[in-house]
Amino acid sequence: MQISAFEILGPIMVGPSSSHTAGALRIALVARSLAPNPLEHVGFTLYNSFAHTYRGHGTDRALVAGMLGFMPDDVRVRESFDHARATGLGWDFIEGSDDAGLHPNTVTIAMRSRTGQQVSVTGESLGGGRVRISSIDGVDVEITGDSPTLFVAHRDIPGVLAGLTGKISETGSNIATVRTFRRERGGQAYTIFELDAPVGEELADDLRTAPSVSSVSIVQIPGAGHTASGTEAVHDFLSGAELLELCRREGRSIGEVMRLRERELDPDADADAAMCRILEAMRAETCGPIERPSLSLGGLLGGQARAVSQAGASLATPLMGETLTRAVAYAMATLERSATMGVIVAAPTAGSAGVVPGAVLAVGEAAGADDAQIRGALWCACAVGAIIARNASVSGAEGGCQAEVGSAAAMAAAAVAELLGGSPELALSAASTAISNLLGLVCDPVRGLVEHPCQDRNAIGAANAIVSAQLALSGALDPLPFDEVVAALKSVGASLPTALRETALGGLAAAPSAQTACSRCRGCMSLFEGSRVR
Predict the structure, then answer these.
(1) Which one of 29, 113, 202, 378 is at 20 to 30 Å from 282 when CA atoms are compared?
(2) The pTM is what?
């Protein structure tokens, strides 16, 4: 399993959606690396969930931002239309038809240079900001960015491929995989080289001089983790059962195993410093909107987190209690920041970003935990999320809100259980219960906005996590193994109709009031301004 901890708690990004905002932006960044120069116009054809919700999710702004080279955490994403106009870049959006043969989050980016040269790239947003490039100029490819990648366009004639591999070998680079795609024998061909070590411009320049080569591009997908050459994760695991066996054999907690695994997968990175940045960003996203509320893009959110926090003085004792009140307020605050296109941590997605920080920070504060203990709990959350991402899904477009808030609740429940001294077995039991409580939860964003009912479901997710942790710590264990519950999550997600998987076509999104103009929506004009559709 090559999933990094920081693909689960991360990316640190501009909201409101990890798959529809950060993922879309990353696809555009890859397209930009393949674009003809000087770039004059970009056409974005959106399919399935992307086509139905791209305005409310900020997908349009994110795609344009990616073409400008902005990164997922760049606050300029919100004003990307203005920046594009200033550079003279033209763009339009085309709403493609629903196609069951395509991934729910698919976009084709057609780029045209001022000299008339054209390049087309199709990408898929897989959830949590992870992406896959599936087509270049109509030729099916598969690029995930898990390894340093070279994309070479050339004629399909004898000797070309041998020459390319020879040049790469001369540099001392080891080829992990090589795949060649072609439309017809003797015509245009594309070869993808995945290498064990980072690719330098010197190698790319050398390949460009090879006979019959028309272009060479270094394909970099921001956020994709690269396993260092020759490394093997001794502490790797593919399931809950394997994780528990590792913990038992070494006498370690889930968080300790996950931290060791991350350091083994990328020895050159400072995993501890990265987790410190995650914790710092979580504290900012949970507290800022309570102190300084602001109206969301769609106008449905703004001030709810502060209202819950302030009402806690009178309502906490008879209702949720001080810790749970704080957890709910933190979770709601994170969604408010995300909905203003503020910077948040996807955990594991932007739509569920409030659950983990809400529960873990509130319980940590109540328990007097120090930063090292809270980071340990966050490592535990990463392990649970990685298993779910590998064996089911954390994408609302693939598995409904159960895959987003349900997964986040499982991560938070395990983290809270470990933070309060629970064993690995108790932590996974809490995670099982948290998923079970939200199994079948649909994704039905009203008006295609990641605002309602998303904010309320993050509040419920945080409460669910804390309840599930208390059940496990009290000895009321879940009777089903974690891996079987994850399998059920996947099965139920596949059974949900498309209308209930982030398309804004069913559930609450289909309610009569959701179809009419919103009296509170003061942000509508700015939301739609500049987004041209044909």
Answers:
(1) 29
(2) 0.85
